Amino acid sequence: MEKINNVTVFILRGLSQNPKLEEVCLVVFSFFYSAILLGNLLIILTVSMGNVLQSPMYFFLKYLSFVDICYSSATVPKMIFNLLAKTKTISYMGCMLQLFGVHFFGPTEVFLLVVMAYDRYVAICKPLHYMTIMDQDRCKKMLLGAWLGAFLHSVIETSLMLKVPFCGPNVIDHYFCDVHPMLKLACADTYAAGVVDTANSGTVALGGFITLIISYTLILLSLRKQSAEGRRKALSTCGSHIAVVVMFFGPCTFIYMRPNTTFNGDKMVALFYTIIAPMLNPLIYTLRNKEVKNAMKKLWCKKIFLKTNGK
């Protein structure tokens, strides 16, 4: 495929072309992004500064919150800026960087959710060996594996799009740069590129989803042998993770498991995994987790007490 690229700037159509609706979106998504930053930063600070939340589950939760901030920051600030601008443009290189960010932090979240499911499996099914299996060294290796796997995925996706020629038009029917909407603008046959993208992204999404299903199936089977109190506690612990998984994997699977096709509702579906899930994750993990809530109360009460005494 000969690379002929006459496009230096793309135009993002965004969620709507209605000025009044754009004003509403500006307020709503500015609030959502602020909630993402504040909620996830609160979890990071609570886990990092507290002495109670030191188990592997909270080790991974801290990094999940960090990834949520990075993932939403790859798309939301530009979307908010474009809601204020008359011409919603993004440079060719800026588009490629955004594509890299989306396909780096998105799969990182997928892999972290899989690792967290494995952590819950070990904690519930092999409680006596939990600290031996999930020791600090192994947790760090799992975290490194998640980062490296996501980086490899993102390099493949970005390299794929850098080889695609664009010679006009340059209007992307989305609020961020993604593979399927961009392939529609290519001035060459993109069948092979579409197959590679579906295989690559589909493997991440479907592979992660199948692994999660297996993990939770094994957990549910093991709960039959436990007491009613043990089942209640285990289900409560897993409930938060299941809610996050459903909210994130459902839309991702819908978007990335398809061939190179786009639907009108894709932009609305994408909001769930780029904005809604990162915003709700802190609420889900804190509202359903007494340990996190108690740690937050102790930490911030201590800060207020020290600040008051300092005066």
Structure report:
The chain is mainly α and 311 residues long. The protein has a single domain, classed as Rhopdopsin 7-helix transmembrane proteins, CATH 1.20.1070.10. It contains 11 helices and 3 strands; from the N terminus they run βαααβαααβααααα. The protein has a 3-stranded mixed beta sheet. Helix 1 packs across helix 11, helix 2 runs antiparallel to helix 10 and helix 9 runs antiparallel to helix 10. The longest helix is centred in the middle third of the chain and has 34 residues. The chain is globular, with a radius of gyration of 21 Å. The protein starts with 8 loop residues before the first strand and ends with a helix. The model has no long low-confidence stretch (mean pLDDT 84). Keywords: Cell membrane, G-protein coupled receptor, Membrane, Olfaction, Receptor, Sensory transduction, Transducer, Transmembrane, Transmembrane helix. One of its GO terms (molecular function) is G protein-coupled receptor activity.
Question: Features of this protein?
Answer:
globular; mainly alpha; 11 helices; single chain; Rhopdopsin 7-helix transmembrane proteins; 3 strands
Give a topology summary.
Blueprint: E1 9-12, H1 19-49, H2 56-73, H3 76-84, E2 89-91, H4 92-125, H5 130-133, H6 136-162, E3 171-172, H7 179-183, H8 191-223, H9 228-256, H10 266-287, H11 290-310
Parallel strand pairs: 1-3
Antiparallel strand pairs: 1-2
Helix pairs in contact: 1-2, 1-3, 1-10, 1-11, 2-4, 2-10, 4-6, 4-8, 4-9, 6-8, 8-9, 9-10
Transmembrane segments: 26-47, 96-118, 139-156, 204-223, 235-256, 268-287
GO cellular component, one term: plasma membrane
InterPro entries: GPCR_Rhodpsn, GPCR_Rhodpsn_7TM, Olfact_rcpt, Olfactory_Receptors
